[in-house]
């Protein structure tokens, strides 16, 4: 199996106090982490690519831990999450699918067993490509107040033979959420939906 060759890691955090309405009592914090790594399958079609998922698992855990630290160190404070990948032009969209399990399971592990599916997106693009990573509540996908996205990208990545794998986390709902639907305090199920 190929080793994960990291070129750089980019971490960003934003703190939202208001969106034109009243100031939030506690600002919403949103953070992303992106690792730019070599794509061992770039440049040619490879039938068997699944072994790379095993190699990505430690990277996923490290990134999830760093993201929790970026948001203050309390995994219990994380209420939203998502993941994504940008694959350089020498690769294919399926290479981004290799991040689904390592990225998602890493966040669930680090967050202590979050139940909701981790929303995801991926695309092939050149250096500078931007990606909107979807966010949902960590325990129930139907909590509308936590539907969000975080835009990520970096000017010099991914190069054609690279991929950028991304995790995002938030500390709560949108600052002025008022679109109704299932409220976080009304989650009843353990199926990750409601």
From TrEMBL:
Pfam families: AA_synth (PF06684)
InterPro entries recorded: AA_synth_put, BB2672
Domain of life: Bacteria
Name assigned to this protein: Amino acid synthesis family protein
Originating organism: Lacimonas salitolerans
